[in-house]
Amino acid sequence: MDLTLLVLAAGMGSRYGGLKQLDQVGPSGETIIDYSVYDAIEAGFNKIVFIIRKDIEKEMNEMLFEKYSKKIKIEYVFQELDKIPDGIELPADRVKPWGTGHAVLMAKDVINEPFVVINADDFYGKSAFKVVADYMKSQQNNLKGKNCMAGYLLKNTLSEHGDVSRGVCKVNKENELIEITERTKIGWKHGKIVADDNGNDLELNGNVYVSMNFWGFTPDVFPELESEFKKFIVENYENIKSEYYIPNIVSHQINKGLATVKVLEATDQWFGVTYKEDKPIVIEKIKELTNAEKYSEKLW
Length: 300
Fold this sequence. Notes:
Elements: E1 4-8, H1 32-43, E2 47-52, H2 57-68, E3 73-78, H3 100-105, E4 115-119, E5 122-123, H4 126-138, E6 146-153, E7 164-171, E8 177-189, E9 192-197, E10 200-203, E11 209-217, H5 221-235, H6 246-255, E12 260-265, E13 271-272, H7 279-291
Parallel strand pairs: 1-2, 1-4, 2-3, 6-12
Antiparallel strand pairs: 4-11, 5-13, 6-11, 7-8, 7-11, 8-9, 9-10
């Protein structure tokens, strides 16, 4: 079964203060993407597509793509502001990227097989790639509309150095996603996990599943994604900072009965580099995994 990994690597790194996609965190100078690609190959993926910006094409080629291409098929496409559905004019003052939903849409001409979406700057661990790949392979004879996601416990995904945003999940008894709610400004406060709720603190259970943007889709998501993104632009034309996120299309598919989303528990701890202060923690965690022989000192 063909299975593609779609890596969202066009982020600006505004909170981080630089290109965290290319920051070296491993013992031999590995980036976080290096570990994701390594784990994906191990789990049976046979193609990787990167969403990048034109201004980082040279660096991505030199640091990542050349070495990956010796192990797996590599393609990349650009996320640009003016790549929007036909019949829509780009708002004159728009400078902010259109969001993760738009980023996924950029790959519609190069992906014709089941695929998994991840962020470039998140360390997901081996279990996420394995459970999602195994599920998609097990459904390969009837995969249409059988989406999935790797679910992490909220308490295991917080940053010690600032608030985060998370897609908080509600599941049914079959562990299928019923609802996903984007919560912002999530962090620890007086020993409790709270999120912003229209200016008020909303306490959250640390044991709920959250999405860390690790989604499994079939290619039939693309027509719906394009049509819903077009509606989004029309409805938010005057809001030049609005973004269309992957959970928007997931919620649409669930609500319309177009797909189910199986939530598969990822048992490894997630960590990432949202803030510059997160980097030493990431380096230490990867060092621990290397010392435990989960990864070799030099991946590539």
